[in-house]
Amino acid sequence: MGMASDDEQIYAWTTQHRLLLADVLASLAPGQWQAPTLCAGWTVHDLAGHLVQPVYVSFRRFFVVSLRYWGNTDATVAHFARELAQAEPAHLIELLRAHAADQVSPPRVGPMGPFADACIHLRDLARPLGLSADVPAEHWQTLLDYLVSDEVAPALVPPGRLEGVGLRATDADWSGGIGPAAEGTLEALALAATGRSVAADELTGPGADLLRHRLRR
């Protein structure tokens, strides 16, 4: 496929993931909206607020607010998560469904940014609640191909995190990176690569020890 075709596939998968996220959120009891997620310091409600950010906050508004935080992307993202989480759960679910097919291409990350967000945050939400909702293996493999590439956005995988580490899936025919192997499921590899220590604890092999060390520095 050409680049345009690749992008269209990523947009289609992102739509699918957003609708799944909306379904999972709609299935939760009121008290579960205050449950913690794998995103440090964020409840399910906070994460739901973040999920509608790409389709609700313009790039210009994001940039303007980022100036308050001296250009710190993480702080700006947290600002909007808190702001949008003031909305009622039903409204956030409605927004997520209504804008599921929006084709958002943020600077520096392009279509892979929202795609990665939808894959990773589904499990950020579902794992602590013991929910099985997941994305297909092909989607995890596509995401992992991006995470180990030279094009990956630093906001997803900071420079040096995966340097000298080979990733190898135990539930699919996939491997990437160069170095001592860190082995685990596709999901665990993707979550660990994007900074989730709980998933890194599930990995095995000499590369896993190196990755865990880097995540805990």
TrEMBL record:
<dbReference type="InterPro" id="IPR024344">
    <property type="entry name" value="MDMPI_metal-binding"/>
</dbReference>
<dbReference type="InterPro" id="IPR017517">
    <property type="entry name" value="Maleyloyr_isom"/>
</dbReference>
<dbReference type="InterPro" id="IPR034660">
    <property type="entry name" value="DinB/YfiT-like"/>
</dbReference>
<protein>
    <recommendedName>
        <fullName>Mycothiol-dependent maleylpyruvate isomerase metal-binding domain-containing protein</fullName>
    </recommendedName>
</protein>
<dbReference type="Pfam" id="PF11716">
    <property type="entry name" value="MDMPI_N"/>
</dbReference>
<feature type="domain" description="Mycothiol-dependent maleylpyruvate isomerase metal-binding">
    <location>
        <begin position="21"/>
        <end position="102"/>
    </location>
</feature>
<dbReference type="GO" id="GO:0046872">
    <property type="term" value="F:metal ion binding"/>
</dbReference>
